[in-house]
Design goal:
It is a single chain. Helices cover about 20% and strands about 15% of the residues. By secondary structure, it is an alpha+beta fold. It has a domain of about 55 residues.
């Protein structure tokens, strides 16, 4: 909730499988994106803060971060009209 005021970031929640145990995981997955271009260190710091706050809250049973905090991603948009 605290991050809602930050327009430069986006958190994406992924839906868990409809039948628990019949998927790669149970619960939910989320991605923290650096849309402001603040860099890896700022993103890692934001992720650490998010993990610390969620863990301290107590409603999240198990929380794991990405194994590679500096993993890059690529967004590809295909123009179907061309």
């Amino acid at each position: 909730i605290r991050f809602m005021g930050h327009r430069a970031g986006q958190i994406i929640f992924m839906q868990p499988p409809s039948i628990q145990g019949l998927g790669s995981s149970s619960g939910f997955s989320m991605y923290l994106l650096d849309q402001a271009g603040n860099g890896h260190e700022a993103l890692a710091e934001a992720a650490d803060t998010l993990v610390a706050n969620a863990t301290a809250d107590g409603r999240v049973g198990e929380l794991r971060g990405n194994d590679d905090a500096f993993e890059s991603s690529l967004r590809l948009e295909i123009d179907q009209q061309k």
